Amino acid sequence: MKKNNGSTPLNRPLPHSLYSAAALEAAPLLLGQTLVRRTEDGEIRCRIVETESYGGQEDKGSHAFGGRRTARTETMFHAGGKAYVYLIYGMYHCVNVVTGPENDPQAVLIRAVEPLTSRDADRMRLYRGKLPAGKPSNLSNGPGKLCRALRIDKSLNGCRLDRIGGPLYLEQGESAAGLPIMQSPRINIPYAEEYAGKPWRFYIEGNPYVSVVDKQAVPFLYK
């Protein structure tokens, strides 16, 4: 079997239990896992370094709050394992991992990824076009940026992430249990009222591709 950076086997799907879990449980476990985008130019592999949980009909930060089931949110109501892709501000796409059972709308937003190799980074730069000046991590240190860098748009909404070899899927990477994970409130959801301050954002401490480092963040403790 091929190896990734000489250590992690490729083509190992994530356990089904992760997709069937609640979003709040799945969000930290997705850190360190590999997001794979297959394109006409070849595959791009990235390490997930930041996530946010949007869990259930009671979450005022969720598109499906109150059971809102529309053409936009329909994918959230499917059983876990699909990609939920939507457009914000009329110009940026965001990609989420749908989790939980059917008819219980839960999803984990992928906020930032890190290319695993220089080849992956080169292909991502090709898709991003001219990058803003600054640190190299500007390539994919935000949900809209990573979707541009991986050429993810609404055509991938509903794509099966649990099927190796599709246009967009997930592979096993590092175990989240061995990572230094921090948790803090989610970004830019003041409309969520009492849910705006819930510590439902998770990121790998010290990773340069994390979009925002919160000085008030606390270590995530595994139960």
Describe the structure.
This protein is of the alpha+beta class. It has a single domain (3-219), classed as 3-methyladenine DNA Glycosylase, Chain A (Roll). It has four helices and eleven strands. It has helices spanning 16-20, 23-29, 118-128, 143-149; strands at 3-4, 8-9, 34-39, 42-55, 83-88, 92-98, 106-115, 168-171, 181-184, 201-204, 218-219. The strands form two sheets. Strands 3, 4, 5, 6, 7, 8, 9, 10 and 11 form a nine-stranded antiparallel β-sheet that branches. The protein has a two-stranded antiparallel sheet with strand order 1-2. The longest helix is centred in the middle third of the chain and has 11 residues, at 118-128. The chain is globular and about 40 Å long. The relative contact order is 0.22.
* Order of helical and strand elements: EEHHEEEEEHHEEEE
User: Over all CA atoms, what is the radius of gyration?
Assistant: 16 Å
- Largest sheet properties: 9 strands, antiparallel
Report mean pLDDT, rounded to a whole number.
Answer: 93
Sequence stretches where pLDDT stays below 50 over 5 or more residues? 1-8
Secondary-structure arrangement, i.e. CATH architecture: Roll
**Overall domain count:** 1
CATH homology-level superfamily: Methylpurine-DNA glycosylase (MPG)
